[in-house]
């Protein structure tokens, strides 16, 4: 992980609107600028949506012309950055997001909180940021009453974020936004399945689509944690970048809706020979109302390949992995608004402006109803073919009447609703 290790002597780091005085061994990672730029852009769009919904539910007029970045908005968002390090992220949130009431910049480390306090003063954002020294879980458990809940919680820990999920899910407001980073990619990508199962409740498979798989494992884990408290997730955006994954999910309360959770998770069966994969939902849940007005739940148990059956394409046995989140990982309406907002901003305001535009444009094209993807090089390798040009292969699928897209997580990815038999047929005739 490329981390700038800050020496004993103090130095000044500038990132967009914020200037950070960093000293001692407080964590600062310049590579995460893309993560921070993305989060700021998402929160600007989310703030308008969420505050409008809240105003409507309380029957009060909504006027976002009063939202100014850097100024306190009395009805604005309460944000918790639970693991804040230098406070850089919180300071940028304060200066670059319109519609903020308060940001709690918390860290367990005494040195980190001293650095947060100094940086808050240096950037003159005392009106918006409250530094806090506490264990993130304790702070969140002490904030579960309605008036103390947060509208936004940002979890950006070292490695796996799961130990913070129970606290975050209980202290977030209904409809609030949870932003979660996971950097333990080796675990999520299937290098140590036993560790992944222990941490995330999922058995990963070593697949070429491991980056999207990592996102789906994390979403599965957040959803199952949420279900314990009668809550469920609505993913707005899920990004795989550099050495980490980052998801932006709304958390809604609704015991009845939790019953559908089973239909949003799938097991994966991957052939040990040709690596063809098939997803099997854990169940098809249908909730209906009886003549007497009672709610009635029906489960359909799906059938399909299993570890014992042979692959229909090459005859080998299957590996089984999962469960993973198999519903959409983005909300395309949200992504469209996000992209428009970014395109309207001057290039100089976000250091990673062009990268954001590029990644989000691919995200906007991704087929939402097709989980995971194949990688063309691997398919060619199985059939011992010379490299097939990806654009020509995509055209062949389109001509055969199927939909196809890339995934932002891999450059040679093929996401398609074509049955795998069609993919193999096209390649065999190449
Ligand atoms: N969000 C920061 C940013 O954007 O620059 C980086 C956070 S850094 C990856 C993780 C931080 O979590 C460290 O500063 C560490 O001191 C803090 N930390 C670790 N365990 C914690 C806990 N239980 N409660 C609060 N903070 C914790």
Question: How are strands sequenced across the largest beta sheet?
Answer: 5-4-3-6-7-9-8
Count of separate DSSP helical elements: 14
Report the radius of gyration as a whole number of Å.
Answer: 23 Å
First-residue to last-residue Cα separation: 41 Å
Strand content: 25-35%
Distinct compounds present: S-adenosylmethionine
General description of the model:
- The chain has 430 residues and is α/β, with parallel strands linked by helices.
- It is 34% helix and 27% strand.
- It has 14 helices and 17 strands.
- The strands form five sheets. A seven-stranded mixed β-sheet has the order 5-4-3-6-7-9-8, sandwiched between helices. Strands 11-10-14 form a three-stranded antiparallel β-sheet.
- Strand 8 (231-241) and strand 9 (244-253) form a beta hairpin.
- Helix 1 crosses helix 2 (88-96).
- Residues 27, 32, 83-85, 88-89, 106-109, 112, 135-136, 156-158 line the site of S-adenosylmethionine.
Q: What would you say about this model in short?
A:
The protein is an alpha/beta fold and 430 residues long. Helix content is 34%, strand content 27%.
SSE layout and pairings?
Elements: E1 11-15, E2 18-22, H1 33-57, E3 72-81, H2 88-96, E4 100-107, H3 110-122, E5 129-133, H4 136-141, E6 150-155, H5 165-170, E7 172-182, H6 185-188, H7 193-200, H8 210-227, E8 231-241, E9 244-253, H9 255-258, E10 265-271, E11 277-281, E12 284-289, E13 295-300, E14 318-325, H10 332-344, H11 353-365, E15 374-375, H12 376-382, H13 390-399, E16 404-407, E17 410-416, H14 420-428
Parallel strand pairs: 3-4, 3-6, 4-5, 6-7
Antiparallel strand pairs: 1-2, 7-9, 8-9, 10-11, 10-14, 12-13, 15-17, 16-17
The chain binds S-adenosylmethionine.
S-adenosylmethionine is lined by residues 27, 32, 83-85, 88-89, 106-109, 112, 135-136, 156-158.
